[in-house]
Design brief:
alpha+beta; 38-stranded mixed sheet; 40 strands; 12 helices; single chain; AsmA
């Protein structure tokens, strides 16, 4: 408004000066003689030096004045370039009305007008002095008390004025901003108006070319408008049409064309009321090759805009905005057609508050990245904003995309000082599978096609910028027959502190996994080393304390219940403890750790499982039950590294087990002994379909793992016909083993072997397991076996010889005794003959 007032004052002053000049010129023949008085008058009004090259008068058919080569000096400190220049200034007045003291001025023509506007590095402009003159103390006093000084409205003095209009041709305006290091040049400036009379609309046309430097942008502007000026200073405009076309290296588009149309603009400044019944906006652009959009078309329509300056209220009953475009290059959308509608917008200017009855957005998107190549969605809400109270609200939010429907409410406080917000989100029950299939989204293969048929969720979220905290409360997620509930929170965003407590009643993950493929050939294990990437810096920065409880879980062959997983982390040290689950008829307890506080990640694991069916566990986890039996299993392992090979090589710890009634699968010790026995006898055994396993009634084992090598500290087993011990090692890195199993045959007629091993009773048979850990080669130490057999036979023959010698000696002894007895008897008989 100050600019408008200033323009009116300058216009009025100019007209008054021109009227005065005409009056002087009427009285003289050569107006150049009075050039000094004119320039003095201008200097008094503006404080600037006015230079006029030549002045000429014409008297017929109109009284006219022409000024050639006019210059108005610049403000001090802004250089020698004139503030204003004009090659020619023409103005005329009808002669006959002058006789009746009426002034009918012809059009004011300015040819070759140049206006130089500047701002220095301190922010001062080269027209500040003109504004100061216009707002001086004398003007202020007169404006507040016109009657006391006998002053009148300047426009009242021109009540009988008829002005033929303004005609500016070949104008130029230059704007230099030293603060922003920016320059704008307006050239080919044309401005013209129709005849100006109070209370009557007159046309205004303006066109120009603009050149902007830093950044480089060129623009062609055309403005047409009709305006009306009242004697009391009120004015109004209508039929405003603005068109602009821009291009330039700084613009990512070419041929940017924008237009603005305002059929009517009512400016009741006396009532401080502005009414704009309709505003139409149009923007069209063609994108350059490196711009994501090939074409953009934006159409806007605003209706019944009203501004009440007294009450500081602005209303916009309805606004529609439609944006269409075509993508190009890597832009994910090929086409979009989006619509925005705002109803009942009201702005409280003094309170800096805005509210709407409704906001509606419609999205119509097409592109290869979209499911089914297209997506349509609608968003509705009722927003409000109050900057004075620092509050914002987004109520009645509803997002709809096909069968998907999400309802939400958002409230925020202290949005400028310390933003805090609360939100509630509700995902209505949705057949997610059907919805995704309608969008042509291919789901991962699942064994059960009835999954994802019912999905729903509810959650409350709290955000506090000052505390750097996000809280998730009352979380409820329904997934088919499963229900997840709980809460979570995150604070200290730079170094996240995470806490959560989640409970899942039950879930059958097998329904969501692909069907087990048993017919596929087993692929050989890859020899390539596996990198185990960890976000170590993030893990060091996080603090975690959370629990997850699961009532029952099905995954592959596992069906654990009463699962508790507790995760804690601080300063790069992560611990799963306590972690337990009821599984395989026992309770499995696990303590696992990850330490990334040092240079190399450290891992640890402790497992305690009493009365566990080892075969079922191995079958469930490894799909290989090479060891079966029931008993306790305890492990205490540590390792470190970033690759799988490093983890194997740095593996250390202990493993112990106490099993009964089990078997070691993969080799049949009894069959191996049979084969060895047959070789001793020179026989060949027939083929057998007996399961390759070695049964045991008790197995005690202790393994010590050092740098990836498992050494058997002790291993003893009781089999139905033998007692087993073992020694050796298994290299986990190379997955090779070399173990010697000593099997001592005992007398038994039950179990594997039975009576056929009775003749081997007492023998200790060495069995060598060597090669791949999964399928080792089994061999017997035949030399040792032959040596044991020979020693047994030699000892047996030796004992038989000793026994025979003893028997012979006993028999001989009896003969000698009998012979001695007989000789003694005979001698006694001879004695008694005397």
């Amino acid at each position: 408004m100050k600019a408008v007032s200033l323009i009116l004052k300058i216009l009025a002053a100019t007209i008054i000066v021109l009227i005065a000049a005409i009056g002087i010129l009427i009285a003289v023949v050569d107006p150049n003689d009075y050039r000094g008085e004119i320039t003095e008058l201008v200097e008094k009004q503006t404080g600037r030096d006015l230079q006029i090259g030549n002045m000429s008068l014409s008297f017929y058919p109109k009284l006219g004045l022409q000024l050639d080569e006019v210059q108005l000096s610049n403000a001090k400190g802004f250089g020698e370039t004139p503030f204003l220049q004009a090659q020619k200034v023409q103005v005329g007045a009808a002669i006959l009305p002058l006789l009746s003291k009426e002034l009918q001025i012809d059009a004011l023509a300015l040819y070759g007008l140049k206006l130089n506007l500047q701002k220095d590095a301190e922010g001062h402009t080269n027209w500040d002095d003109l504004v100061a003159k216009g707002l001086g103390e004398e003007d202020k006093d007169e404006s507040h008390d016109e009657k006391s000084d006998g002053g009148e409205n300047p426009l009242d003095q021109l009540a009988a004025l008829s002005f033929g209009g303004l005609d500016i041709q070949d104008g130029e305006l230059v704007w230099k901003d030293a603060q922003a290091q920016q320059e704008v040049r307006i050239s080919d400036l044309t401005a013209s108006t129709g005849s100006i009379e109070f209370g009557e609309f007159f046309p205004i046309h303006f066109s120009a070319k603009t050149q902007l430097k830093n950044p480089d942008i060129n623009n062609q502007l055309a403005l047409d408008i009709e305006a009306k000026l009242e004697r009391d200073g009120q004015y109004s405009v209508r039929n405003l049409q603005l068109e602009t076309q821009a291009d330039g290296q700084a613009l990512p588009v070419s041929g940017l064309l924008a237009s603005l149309k305002i059929p009517t603009l009512n400016l009741a400044l006396e009532k401080q009321q502005i009414d704009l019944p309709q505003l139409q906006l149009s923007v069209q652009a063609q994108g350059k090759s490196d711009f994501p959009l090939k074409q953009l078309d934006v159409q806007g329509n605003l209706q019944n805009i009203s501004v009440d300056l007294n009450n500081q209220v602005a209303t916009l009953p309805k606004m529609e905005l439609n944006a269409k475009g075509d993508g190009q290059g890597d832009f994910p959308l090929k086409h979009f057609d989006n619509k925005l509608e705002i109803n009942g917008l009201q702005a409280q200017i003094d309170q800096q508050a805005v509210s709407m009855d409704s906001l509606k957005m419609h999205y119509d998107l097409k592109g290869d990245v979209l499911p089914n190549g297209a997506l349509q969605a609608d968003l509705t809400a009722k927003p409000s904003l109050n900057l004075s109270k620092q509050t914002a609200e987004l109520s009645a939010v509803q997002l709809t995309a096909g069968d998907l429907k999400i309802n939400a409410e958002v409230k925020a406080q202290k949005i400028m000082d310390n933003p805090q917000a609360q939100a509630s989100v509700n995902l209505n029950p949705l057949n997610l599978r059907k919805w995704l299939e309608a969008l042509k989204i291919t789901l991962p293969e699942m064994s059960d096609p009835a999954t994802l048929n019912q999905v729903a969720a509810k959650v409350n979220v709290e955000y506090d910028q000052g505390k750097q905290a996000v809280k998730v409360n009352n979380l409820q997620v329904d997934l088919d027959q499963s229900k997840l509930q709980g809460s979570a929170q995150v604070s200290q965003f730079a170094k996240p502190n995470i806490r959560y407590d989640l409970t899942l009643d039950q879930i059958d993950l097998n329904r969501y996994l692909p069907k087990t493929k048993t017919e596929e050939a087993t692929q050989p294990a890859s020899k390539e080393d596996i990198e185990i990437p960890l976000p170590e810096e993030l893990l060091k920065s996080m603090t975690v304390d959370g629990t997850v409880k699961v009532g029952s879980l099905k995954v592959q062959k596992l069906q654990p219940k009463n699962i508790l997983v507790t995760l804690k982390a601080k300063n790069g040290k992560w611990q799963l403890s306590p972690t337990r689950a009821d599984i395989f008829g026992t309770q499995l307890s696990v303590q696992a750790g990850l330490d990334v506080s040092g240079k190399t990640p450290q891992y640890s694991a402790k497992v305690t499982a009493p009365k566990v069916p080892v075969g079922d566990v191995m079958l469930a986890f490894t799909d290989n039950d090479m060891l079966s039996g029931t008993g306790s299993v305890n492990t205490d392992l540590t390792t470190s590294g970033r690759k799988l090979s490093e983890l194997k090589q740095n593996l250390n710890g202990n493993v112990s087990s106490d099993l009964i009634d089990g078997a070691v699968k993969g080799f049949n010790l009894a069959q191996s002994i049979r084969e060895a026995k047959a070789k001793l006898s020179g026989e060949t055994l027939p083929a057998t379909d007996e399961v390759p396993q070695t049964d045991f009634s008790e197995l005690l084992a202790k393994l010590k793992i050092t740098n990836g090598v498992a050494n058997i500290e002790s291993l003893s087993a009781l089999a139905p016909f033998m007692r087993i011990s073992a020694e050796g090692k298994a290299n986990i890195v190379t997955e090779q083993m070399n173990v010697l199993v000593n099997a001592k045959i005992v007398e038994s007629d039950k179990g594997q072997g039975g009576k056929e091993f009775q003749d081997l009773s007492g023998l200790t048979i060495p069995v060598r397991l060597k090669g791949a850990m999964v399928s080792p080669a089994v061999s017997l130490d035949l030399a040792s076996l032959f040596e044991q057999k020979a020693k047994m036979e030699l000892e047996q023959k030796k004992q038989e010889a000793i026994d025979q010698a003893k028997k012979a000696a006993e028999e001989k002894k009896e003969e000698v005794i009998e012979d001695v007895k007989k000789q003694a008897t005979d001698k006694l008989k001879d004695l008694f003959k005397f």
